[in-house]
């Protein structure tokens, strides 16, 4: 009877803890991340905790990404992948983040590497348009006269799912690049 009670108590505690970790990951990911070291040192490495830490780092990473704190975003996506190496959300956004960091260098070979990373994103989430948006920006940065590649990337971005803050930017970029192409063509006619 005592063994049965111990097993039930253990299952209950881990079940409740898993729910708490998940709740913290959603409602207060920064708090869960702050507790991460002590939780891991105590030997609690159960799947619900690792999933919650993955989710928490993804949440914080996305917030950093969308305020252009690329180094912080990259750190959190790497941490997320250390807990769950096959987490597609962390992989996708780490490639977006790394690509944007490469673009910031302004070096053509690094920008080509960024375009390659954005291409990898399409294999994970082809319905997302964010990587197409950044591909368009990268092509523009490499050479602003390659209108077909630039326009194709921005057009794809507008036809797919985009975060709210990029949806309007993608439409504006598409129109701006179409206007530039027309102006360029009219100049040479």
Protein model, in words:
Helix 4 packs antiparallel against helix 5 (88-104). This protein has helices spanning 2-27, 29-41, 47-66, 70-83, 88-104, 108-124, 130-142, 147-159, 164-187. The chain has two domains: 1-86; 106-189, Alpha Horseshoe (Serine Threonine Protein Phosphatase 5, Tetratricopeptide repeat), CATH 1.25.40. It has nine helices and no strands. It is elongated.
**Measured distance between first and last alpha carbons:** 91 Å
Strand content: under 5%
Integer average pLDDT: 88
Main sheet makeup: none
Overall strand count? 0
Compute the number of structural domains: 2
Structural category: mainly alpha
Low-confidence stretches: 1-17
Radius of gyration: 22 Å
Give the number of helices.
9
Q: What is the share of helical residues?
A: over 70%
Question: In sequence order, what are the helices and strands, one letter per element?
Answer: HHHHHHHHH
**Dominant shape:** elongated
Summarize the structure.
By secondary structure, the chain is mainly α. The chain is built from nine helices and no strands.
